[in-house]
Amino acid sequence: MPLLDHFRSPIKNRGSWEGFHGMWPGCIVQDLIKVLPDHYVAEPRVHLGAAFEIDVCTFEPEDAQQTAAAMDHEPGGTATATWAPPEPTLVVDADPTQGYEYEVLIFDHNRARQLVAAIELASPGNMDRPRNRRAFVAKCAALLQQRVCVSIVDLVTTAQFNLYNDLLAEYDQVDAAFQPPPSTYAVTCRSHWLGDRARLESWAYPLIVGQPLPTLPIWLDDEFAVALNLEASYQTTCKSLRLV
After folding, report:
1. DSSP structure class, residue 225
2. Mean pLDDT, to the nearest integer, of 62-89?
């Protein structure tokens, strides 16, 4: 099935991109289960930004509040002096990052549930502000530094930013095949040692509306990779949401 444009009509009128991005990680996990060795586990993760987080204080038990109040007094009824910090030297309005996160994480139970791979589905919230783009790139760079295989899948047709190119810029590198950079693409990156030299390798493919999605390698260690068939999980997601 060819790639659809989830951000424009007529697909936009049939279902939200949030719904699609929310379901796709689960379908990716179902496909990965078929190829992952038994000691690996894949888990979908969806984070909807600070605006959707539960206010924990609302559900704090009454006895917990009483315990906190009691801690202000020492045994025997003697009040404990509370240190009052000085006024802050700077106060500014700082709206927390609202960018959504849609991802699949793969862990190795034989290595104490070590994170070995992350599949990041880029959303408009990852690109709508410079700081959100920087946060996304910094997260991917930090994972690569820990030798975690990182895949980025970007279907956002309404933004012209290329987070993969921004990631390469962190290493002062460019991908000649991505010049000019496509706005939609799928890529896998990994860092590993070859002898005494650290190497960054990538498998990058532009995504074109109307064309099938590629298969990405997902590296579980330096010598072993499994195939992530994006087209299969994409079809399952679209059919389940009745987008086709």
Report:
1. E
2. 63
Q: What is the value of pTM for the model shown?
A: 0.81
72 neighbors 82 (Cβ within 8 angstroms): yes
**Residue 17: helix, strand or coil by DSSP?**
helix
Q: Per residue, what are the HEC states of 116-184?
A: EEEEEEECHHHCCCHHHHHHHHHHHHHHHHCCCEEEEEECCCCCCCCHHHHHHHCCCCCCHHHCCCCCC
pLDDT averaged over every residue in the chain: 86
Closest CA to 79 of 88, 87, 70: 70
Of 42-46, 50-54, 141-145, least confident by mean pLDDT is: 50-54
Residue type, 176: A
- Of 218, 181, 180, the residue nearest 201 (C-alpha): 218
pLDDT tens-digit profile of 95-124?
554 557 899 999 999 999 999 999 999 999
The residues near 34 (Cβ < 8 Å, ≥ 6 apart) are none
Place of tokens 């975690």: 148
Q: In the chain, where do the E strands start and end? A: 40-47, 101-108, 114-122, 149-154, 185-194, 197-206, 215-219, 225-229
The DSSP call for residue 85 is P
